[in-house]
Amino acid sequence: MNTNHSIKRSVSLYSFQEEYFLRKLTLEDLIAVTQRLDIPGVEIIPDQMIPGYPNLTDEFLRQWHGWMEKYERTPVCMDMFLDWNKFKGRVMTEDERVESIARDIVNARKLGCGVIRVIHDVEPHILERLAPTAEKHEVTLALEIHAPSYYDSPHEQRLVAMFQRVQSPYLGFTLDLGVFVKRLPRVITERFLRDGMKKEIVEYLATAYESRTMPQSKELGRPNTALMEKVIEMGGSEEDARKAMVGAHMIYADPKMMLDYLPYTYHIHAKFYEMLPDYTEYSIPYEEVVPLLIQGGYSGYLSSEYEGNRWIQDAFEVDSVEQVRRHQVMLKRLLGEE
Amino acid sequence: MFDKYMIVGEAFRNVQEGGRITGYQFGVRLPYYRGVVLSLVGDMDLTVDGEKVPPEDMTVTVGGKTLPVTQLEDEPEAKWEFGEVGIVTVKKPGGLAPGEHTLELRQHMKISYVPGGFWGKDKKTLRLAG
Lengths: 338, 130
Prior knowledge:
The complex is a heterodimer of chains A (338) and B (130).
Chain A: E1 8-12, H1 17-21, H2 27-36, E2 41-44, H3 46-49, H4 58-70, E3 74-79, H5 94-111, E4 115-118, H6 124-137, E5 140-145, H7 154-166, E6 171-176, H8 186-194, H9 199-210, H10 225-233, H11 238-248, H12 258-261, E7 265-272, H13 286-295, E8 301-306, H14 309-312, H15 320-334
Parallel strand pairs in A: 1-2, 1-8, 2-3, 3-4, 4-5, 5-6, 6-7, 7-8
Chain B: E1 7-17, E2 20-28, E3 36-37, E4 41-48, E5 51-52, E6 58-62, E7 65-68, E8 79-80, E9 86-91, E10 99-109, E11 118-128
Antiparallel strand pairs in B: 1-2, 2-9, 3-8, 4-5, 4-10, 6-7, 6-9, 10-11
């Protein structure tokens, strides 16, 4: 195993959304968990766990940095959103969009985060306008590549062209490893069955996905009518058809293509749906992906991002902490830390 | 995402004002993974015992602020935080009779990066104390 790399581990507190939502764990509890699980870096969605965001009070900032010191953790990444439709009857102007993200940049710096995960739909020219602000505050704007998009999708290719032209070390990508779903997560197919989808349809979805014969959507936000029609044809309901679209939004992209684009990649969401007791992920082949990150010289954080809770909460007690623990054990093994 | 947690039964009760029952209320959590400004909280389609409740009869109290549901779209600053229980109050002289009632809520979330936003839905049968 090649252990000559400088990849670091972190966790997005998004992973613990179930427990936080239900007020079982507080923000401080979660930071304490990251220490207990030996995860050096912390990523946060401020809209999720910092009430009043984008207003960051001095009191909150004192607390936040106090926790980082107390639990010996490092803030790594802040995830932003651009609510361009929040004003009644109109969309945000270009200046308002720039201003909103500029505020996020200042906030990320206040939180001690050197990277911002930029929401997928921000236009290249908006990011370009923000490059000087990002440089001034030394915060990298890393737009998220999220399934069903990948590096070779149209929006991403426009961004690459801009990155090449602007040559700013503060503009790049966050990659969500959900682009490498090799087989449909079992937590999803089992949920479909519990929700009453016909077994033949669930089996079709799992098999067609795995054999890459399922009609796919190629870009985020585009409807996939072919798959919906197929499910209806098999006797599924419209509700079943809508659910099946989840599968169509997943992709197994070519991991080797990453090698060309890792120089533009500053952060990684290590997405997962189900960590098995043997410390492997059911649907995403980390064994293929992590060695390529090492080979490609990736030097940012691998940030655990658990997203299985929503599929199992109907029938099971969600234990995000245990899921993240297993995921980090796997990352340590693949990074040669053990 | 959090559909099954949307309707919060603990807060289900009739509302009294000036010695008269003027309506009823219950708790609501949004079905989304982050807090949002109120203008992103879309239509709240509420059905109680099979009968649709007119949106004009509903207010929501969140973060210490009470707004008519029909005016949420005018509020791009105040937030409904992640997991926060808002209180929905429905105007109904006399309130609801003691006993079981079935509440069904379809909640639209106007999330900009999801074309058309998305809907969360929850249905619960709650008991109103006599």
